[in-house]
Amino acid sequence: MxxxxxxxxxxxxxxxxxxxxxxxxxxxRADLPYDFVITxxxxxxxxxxxxxxxxxxxxxxxxxxxxxDRKGRGRALRRVWSESSADVVAxxxxxxxxxxxxxxxxxxxxxxxxxxxxxxxxxxxGARVVRGPKREFISRSYNLLLRTLMRxxxxxxxxxxxxxxxxxVQALLPAVQDEEWFFDTELLLxxxxxxxxxxEVPVDWTDDPDSRVDIVRTALDDLRGMxxxxxxxxxxxxxxxxxxxxxxxxVAA
Length: 253
Known about the structure:
Elements: E1 3-10, H1 17-31, E2 35-43, H2 49-59, E3 63-68, H3 73-83, E4 88-92, H4 103-111, E5 117-121, E6 128-130, H5 133-149, E7 161-165, H6 166-172, H7 183-193, E8 198-202, E9 204-206, H8 215-234, H9 245-252
């Protein structure tokens, strides 16, 4: 049976981690018709997050914990995804803002071979979103820039609800430079440049009022990442960064 690995990157999430993992675990056991493993990737937390993650891994089958010495969501995903032996790798934010009912539609096209990557979209037709006007404005502006300046075809680069065929993701990872929030966008831009199939799933999404993401800093980091990728595209270095012709052929297959 196919195996799906879901990564939850966390930094100082001692208050919500246990409840979120238990909720996700119950959902997957009841509704996912595939084997699964949940990996909590602790990004150098300074609270008791690692203790909570370790206890969950000891208590629940199909749950494991990985500790990183440095922060960075992209760094955590790179570490776990590059070592995964699953058929499909995925990740979601620890607050589970995205309705879990969208998870099966997210991974099914990957397991069937129809698509290479899949993303949840809060901006696709049929999505239902509850969030403040500041986040809404920044998100829409950022994705508009991606479509205008980078000629991206996906509608929502920032939603923390993504998956990919493991062999495809592992072939792309060496070419992705970012280790933090722009990691997702860079992976998607690279995939589109190589002609890979990106499937979008409209999601129901509710903003977490307790989120500690620095919106302005993240937006600036994303803009710097976009400028870097534009320079690499102009110099012909972006897709050339895929590690070898053999890996490129594997990705494009």
